[in-house]
Amino acid sequence: MSNLKSKLANNLSSINEYCNDSVKGFEEAADSIQDTNARLAANFKVRANERRVFSERLSERLLCIGEDREDGGSLSGAIHRGILKLKEAFTSDDVSAVINECIRGEEGLRDEVDEALNSKADPETTSVLLDLKQHVSVSIGDLNLLKQ
């Protein structure tokens, strides 16, 4: 595999892990606030499903460049979800803490996508990454509005 293709595969794998982490994170965030804010919990479940679609699209791109499909999350994602649970347990304003952690996770994903967009990729992969970046940017904006 060429060095360029290897870097692309590594970037896509990393972003796909991050997407899988965000699916799990949004699902856990929804579960953590279901009793106090069912509407926001439903919003988080929708975000998890939308992110799952992006994970599937990234997996398809990985297969197209000859890489194995990545369906798991990462250690850092598991740690982030642990932090989310810890903050929920010790913060009096649970919903605000959950939203802040979701924003932090989204900003991390956006940074990963930006890094991948700075490297060479085929047009189909670039399209998926641009779609994901737009989706994440909208998500960050929506989450920031929810804090107000």
From TrEMBL:
Domain DUF2383, first and last residues per copy: 9-118
Descriptive protein name:
DUF2383 domain-containing protein
One short Pfam family name for this protein? DUF2383
Superkingdom is Bacteria
Recorded hits in InterPro entries, A to Z, give: CHP02284, DUF2383, Ferritin-like
